[in-house]
Amino acid sequence: MQLSLRSSLKPKGPGTNDRHIAERILNVATSMPFVLLGVKTLRKDRHASTNHQLLGLSLVSVGVAATSYHAASGSLRRTLRKLDYWSISLCSTLLARALSPQSAFAGAVQMASLAMIPFQPTAVTAANTALMEMKFARSSQRHPALRQAWRQHVMAECFLMMIALRPVCLRLLRASNLQRKGAEETPELEKTWPACACALSDGSSETQSSTPVCVQLQRRAALFSLAATVAAWQPAVNAAPSNLKYGTWDGKSAAGGSCAIGEEGADCRKGLLGRDKLDTGIYGKALSPKAETGTAVAEMDDSYTQETLQVAKAIQKYASGDPFSPERPSIVKNLKQEGGEWASKYARGGNARKQSARKFYIAYDALLGHLVTSGMAPMPQAKLNKVLQNVDEAKQFLAQGR
Fold this sequence. Notes:
Elements: H1 2-8, H2 21-31, H3 33-44, H4 50-71, H5 76-99, H6 104-116, H7 121-142, H8 147-164, H9 166-180, H10 188-197, H11 205-210, H12 213-236, H13 266-274, H14 302-320, H15 328-346, H16 355-374, H17 381-399
């Protein structure tokens, strides 16, 4: 039983790569960045969920296993080669899970993937990569702020896969040229089919012997796919902000609460409207012959200066902060609260007596409009620079007493 189980573990053999010292050094050099990427993920997400922590550790394990495998020699390479493949599959499994931490389907896929890693590591990596690609594609369709990162990710992955498939393409081209010239070595074309199928093969000894590049291509394609997927992780979904919860409002915009979109939230929206105690009698005031002019604002004293500088500090903190920081929602919440109180006291309806108040209201109104329409998405840099410029001008007017 133990022998049968051991014989089922994949991949088999020491592999056919690292044939000379230059190739060995290159493989080691390209494996070590995974360690740095894992350490960076752990440092950046030290307060994040367990899934993010496990993802960082798995990236470190990929780099350590790959570096050890390429640096080793002799019988030890058989064991390290298995660990190399398994660590890549484990990392892809944890990355797919981190993208959907609340999904029951993702949890079931994770358990199945963990059980299949020792026996079909390449298939597990391919399946999880496909799930992640679909997740990224849906995210880019629903959130315009992610589309540029998605396009960059697709271009990078296509480029890396072209590099990975280059050996097979060269073999097919050489075989096609031989067949076109009528050479006797046309059966060489048949030898290219194992190389084309090796991405789905199990890395058996027969495949390795007939196509030496197969195992190296298989592992290279898995590593390149994983690297491109992780590259899209930071700008697209890392430390997933709260406004990316699909199917519900963010609860902070002008959408009215956190009711679900569509028919599911109909009862919720009716309840919100039922609790609205707006006095309908105010509509009759429009017929009053006496026009009401002017807007009451607070006195422009020392408290005005202090509160204005406090809101300006909140705006600058928002502008200089990391868009994907876990503290981002609380910063936005405080900014909306403090800014709303300031506007209701000193610039109600956009009316302000001082130049500093008018200039500051323009900056706050532009920022609030972005938060209402785009939620936690980063504000375009050009617009953000204009907001900061207006804040600086308002502070200059404050210093002049204007």
